[in-house]
Model the fold of this input.
Amino acid sequence: MSGSETALAAARALVLFSGGQDSATCLAWALARFAAVETVGFDYGQRHRVELECRLAFREGLRRAFPNWAEKLGEDHVIDLGVLGRLSDTALTRERAIAFGESGLPNTFVPGRNLLFFTFAAAIGYRRGARHLVGGMCETDYSGYPDCRDDTLKALQAALSLGMDHRFVIHTPLMWRDKAQTWALAEELGGERLLSLIREETMSCYFGERETRHPWGKGCGECPACALRRAGWERFTVSRTP
Done:
């Protein structure tokens, strides 16, 4: 093990955990690498706030299925960011149809969301001694959100480190992976147990649909988030076929 790998193995991390597929995979990724891992979620008035309940079920399922990770999995934090939902006029925070705006971005984009998420995560990390912040942002299979871009998060890492005079490292293990590769990473990390847990207990659907079960999980099957998740699962399963 290299010096940097040894340092990571002894460090504490904080994972931005929404209750969705991507952040669940990132939580497993962090547990495989760090000595101690805590999670943070945000209640910002999202229409699909059922994801906040999924977070707890996934964490408990992870503890049962992976005892070695259970020893590392620490406290969960939930931050009330209701003001963000009140300020935002988006399809994720209002009863509106999903559409594209004049900017070319979908109206599911919540301006400032990831910037605020990481800022609050850094504040918790500062207090909890966790300088490694982990998020599931991706610039490959995504909706074009500017706060998911690698350049944005590198700039934010520098700003947080300077502004708190505390060296933070933002990790985005999915940044250059498409959804099929994200499923593959989950399989690599935890095999069929982790894949099953992600399919059963995580929520990606923008409408929070939990009644309809698909091979890739639960959801409406029609919204952009469900479409990405379904297409990724289908490509992943094809890649596994002998």
Remarks:
- The chain has nine helices and seven strands.
- The first strand starts at residue 12 and ends at 16.
